[in-house]
Fold each of these.
Amino acid sequence: MLATDPPEHTRLRALVAKTFTTGAVAGLREFIARTADALLDEWPVDGEVDAVAGPAVPLPVAVICELLGVPEAERADVRG
């Protein structure tokens, strides 16, 4: 979806728009906090860290998967 242009992007966006509401995301506040905490707990205590590989990519992917009801076992496939 991210790599598409209108009109295809518009069509795809309309399909998921009802899922990505403010209320739906607000309902995931605890899930988002737990997931962010877990990702940050995995960071090394010293040395370099990669903010993109750390929380910047996995967190939104996890939230999107949760919103769409993607089973935990299949979430790695979505990220790929």
Amino acid sequence: MNLTSQVIITENMEDTISKLEALQQNERFVKIIKEDTFLVEDAKLAIEKAYMASEEITVIILAAKTFSPVVQNKLLKVIEEPPKNKEFIILAQSKSTILDTIRSRLPISVLSDVKHEEHLGLDLDRLSLATVYEFIQTHKRTDAKVMKRLVERISKEAMGSGSYDLDEKTLTLFSNAFTALDVGSPPQFVLNTLLLKLLARKKR
């Protein structure tokens, strides 16, 4: 771990921020930490802080469970061409929510505090309408909190399987699924939408 611009995927934000702070020498820290979703106004604040003149190195830490595509696109220019002596460290919980445009500009490290979970109960390599229907029926009463974990695992496994043509719209859908669950969309509707979209992107 170092204090250069990067994306860190971690489930333990506080611990990761403490580890970053332990590396601090002459750098100045600016921290914008949100409990759930990083908002557009938070992104505006981060950009303002980045353009404040400073001779010392300023490490801008942006931490939240999710960063919407709108927020990431707003941060893109300042990440792509950071002002002098500015480093951006983004902390998020899921690699699948980070847009390709950000990934292509910042290195991503996944911390090993991500828990090993039991089998998903859905074979994404053999996804079909029948297995989608069965899985949705199994999770008819799953609440939003558990559904977020499910969505994250489905996203990770889909990206790792090589069985899907995942365009930017589909990757954005993964990110939007978290936002939808945060604002109270029915978990089963979110799961249904995600799996049917995946099915449509399955390589033939």
Amino acid sequence: MKKELLIIEDDKYISDLEKDYLEVSGYNVTTIADGAEGLNLALSRDFALIILDLMLPGMDGFEICRQIRSEKDVPLIMVTAKKEEIDKNRGFGLGIDDYIVKPFSPSELVARVNAHIARYERLTTKGSAKPEDVLNLGKLIIDRSARRIFVNDNEVTFTHKEFELLVFLALNPNVVYSKDTLFDKIWGLDAIGETSTVTVHINRIRDKIEDDSSNPTYIETVWGVGYRFRYIAK
């Protein structure tokens, strides 16, 4: 069965170009020109990936991303024009997985779509949890197979990049990783963006798992070097 993609883009030439190349590559593609209508469709149906323009009538791409992320975990690629001054860290912090800048090569877009879907599917392969898939770290429990995180027995929602970053650090405790290394390990697709997005994600993770994010128990900052996951059982 062909995977379903959603394009939210008000420039008909661009949306038709994206649609044509993606359909030739084996996807079923739905296009919507209005931001609010695109959001409603994104929330009402299950898509393998969503491509959204930053500047849209009705609602901008950042707000669409925020509302999608509050309910769904789906790969999101934002399209932006070179002339637009955007806060990439804001987008990554809201849960954008990748940026692509206009004008772009349609083959590059297809390659990124393929890579993000494949990566997401590897991370979300369903199956019964094995003991080794559950990391029990005191008040923090990470169920890797179910992709669920509990803090003090309460489930906490994570974007898949936040989840991926936390799991990577938790599986490699007491090892210090630079922001460059973490960006390469977690994003790893020559994504448009800066390594400072790692800091944005670390801060968001701390806000979700730490009693005091300014004095973290789990993810420590090693000044001038990077971050490490440190947990001492009590």
Amino acid sequence: MTPPPGEVLRVLAAARITHVAGIPDNTSAPLFDALADHPAIHLVTVSREGEAFALASGVWLGGGRPLVVVQNTGLLESGDALRGTAVRMGVPLPVLITGRGYARLAAAGVDPRAPPEGELLRRPDVDSVALLTEPTLDAWGIPWTRCDDGTQAPARLAGTVRMARTQETPVALILTAPPT
């Protein structure tokens, strides 16, 4: 069970996030549920992850302070919207990525930094999205950090927001464990 997202909400409010755009998954669903009734942060669910990046870029153009929340599978789907819109425009966009597949990598004894090639991508005990997430962010020039300890998620998210705003670019936090 995913713990309540209270600390994450406090981080978002303190950072004056105005909009959260994305699609909920098992890990992020409690955050989306909590945001549904939030008095200051507008939740915008989209039908495809690429829409979240385009929408967040538009919110930023309008003076808002958006955050995108997607699963790593959806991140891969949204590459052109992220690259061609948010990166190209220099949108200071924090991106919270829930990391599907990292637990399976650990159970299989595979380091997430292993080169994503050949047999490893075809192994039935490995979810290849976890192998592809970090190299994809690197290829797109997106600074990122991974948080494997849910207790550190709020502080790491605050750092991600600060970095995105300082560097005026999308910056990602990959959560492999639910926030506590």
